[in-house]
Amino acid sequence: MSFIKDHTKNNSNVRAKPFVLVMEGIDYSGKTTLAHRIQAALTKRAYQVKLLHDPKGSPNGRIIWDTILTLKKQAAHPITEFFLFLAARNELIYKEALGGEKKTDVIIFDRFIFSTIAYQLTHQPQYWELLLSIHRSFSSLVPHSCIYCEIDFNTFQLRSQARSKKDSFDQMNKERFNAIQWAYDQALRLPFCPVIRVNCLHEESFASLIDTIESSLQH
Ligand SMILES: Nc1ncnc2c1ncn2[C@@H]1O[C@H](COP(=O)(O)OP(=O)(O)O)[C@@H](O)[C@H]1O
Ligand SMILES: Cc1cn([C@H]2C[C@H](O)[C@@H](COP(=O)(O)OP(=O)(O)O)O2)c(=O)[nH]c1=O
User: Fold this and answer.
1) What is the pLDDT at residue 56?
2) Domain boundaries, the chain
3) Does ligand 1 have an atom closer than 6 angstroms to the CB of 176?
4) ipTM of the predicted structure?
5) What pLDDT, on a 0 to 100 scale, did the predictor assign at position 130?
6) Whether residue 32 has its Cβ less than 6 Å from ligand 2
7) Domain covering 15-217, topology
8) Distance between CA atoms of 196 and 217, rounded to whole angstroms?
């Protein structure tokens, strides 16, 4: 029986686990834009959808984010950043994702675990499996599906010039961009969840993306 059908048929207090969809990709790849479109499309199809930004999607997460930015200026070690991002994610999961009274069918995380691998553990693949194990054990929420937004360096530069961020985190030259992209490519091959790669979707492919997501929800 499908997960969604379970929800609609059963109005008891028992909450079935939500489907966890994560949006990943380098800065400016279009994650947030696409996440909002997916949320709107699924809401239109009568699903209850929560959209959460990692790391800033919870009050304590925003405090941790400010600390991360401060430490970044002090050239903190990537592993220090790694623990802080995990801490922010823990707040996001327990306070926002699992909190609240309303039933949730789908949680969309705008960035999640793969970002930590790509940005903090870029050159340290020996830690990747460990990170996944930590996630599996400390959180009941692991991704069921990942949408990876692709972007090339030229488009990245054009978009970043058009929209300079006040709290820009990663000073991204081409070398860093390639390293993060490489880490993402490797991380997305880990046996964690299915990955859908997208690149500047047209209306037609957006509709088929939503169909694919909906069919995943029902299995
Ligand atoms: N498919 C697209 N085609 C063209 N521009 C896009 C597309 N998706 C997003 N953008 C633009 O690129 C910039 C970054 O998008 P955003 O969704 O904020 O990316 P991210 O969340 O990955 O940083 C924004 O200015 C947005 O309007
Ligand atoms: C979740 C996460 C984000 N980050 C970085 C990636 C982004 O540069 C920054 C989030 O900043 P943000 O401005 O929200 O970027 P975006 O809109 O692209 O998500 O934090 C990590 O380095 N590790 C992580 O685990």
Assistant:
1) 98
2) 15-217
3) no
4) 0.97
5) 87
6) yes
7) Rossmann fold (3.40.50)
8) 14
Rg (CA), the chain: 17
CB 199 within 8 A of CB 125: no
165 lines ligand 1 (CB under 6 A): no
User: Residue 19 C-alpha to ligand 1 middle, in angstroms?
Assistant: 24
Range of lowest pLDDT (25-39, 117-131, 197-211): 197-211
Cβ-based neighbours of 195, under 8 Å, separated by 6 or more: 145, 146, 147, 148, 188
Instruction: Indicate whether 7 pLDDT > 90.
Output: no
